[in-house]
Amino acid sequence: MNVNVKKRYERNLFSLSPQEFEKLREKKVCVVGCGGLGGYIIEMLGRLGVGQITAVDKDVFEESNLNRQILSDMNSLGKSKALKAKERMELVNPDVKVIAVKEAFSEKNGKDILMGNDLVVDALDDIKARLLLEEIAEQVGIPMIHGAIAGWYGQVTTVFPGDRTLHRIYTGAGNKGIEAQLGNPSFTPAVVAAIQVSEAVKVLIGRGEILRNRLLFVNLLDHEYFTINLSG
What we know:
By secondary structure, the protein is α/β, with parallel strands linked by helices. It is 34% helix and 19% strand. It has eight helices and eight strands; from the N terminus they run αβαβαβαβαββαααββ.
């Protein structure tokens, strides 16, 4: 290999070329939400060697997070999720710069948070906030990877500026999704976050087929996986 790669990344290079790996090291990704989905997303992006991750979350850990949120533990209760994401990555991969934003993503601060990033990953649990994230990502001109979970089920799509995909998916929806009734076990966020990260990597390196204008549904209870074409 012509690229000098540290031993920690050797196994990445069976799937990524040295050039693609170097490209990831130059990228900046914002993850909005550091809970069930976001914790896994940050963990995987960091282990891949993405150069900079901005972790956004106003919340602190509660006991109800312990069943599924990888960043949570007994010692983290009452502690900022965003700050824990930064501390976790300092232990896992100090090569990755993590910026902890201990604020709610809002219309007031959204552009400042997303500006300068190459991509944003939606790890929110609030429909109104997701729609706002899509709008501001469009204004800033960066793609967004959306993911949502509820019980045994999940969904993922990739949104480019101008697609307005979430505004079509959530037309007429309330502020909370069906997860309020179905809950979230430990395994669903891990699966959906992994798909989101794979989509993020494909967008960042420009390789592979992505879920643009398509919505992937995941049914882990019956092992059904299918996509809906949203381009019509």
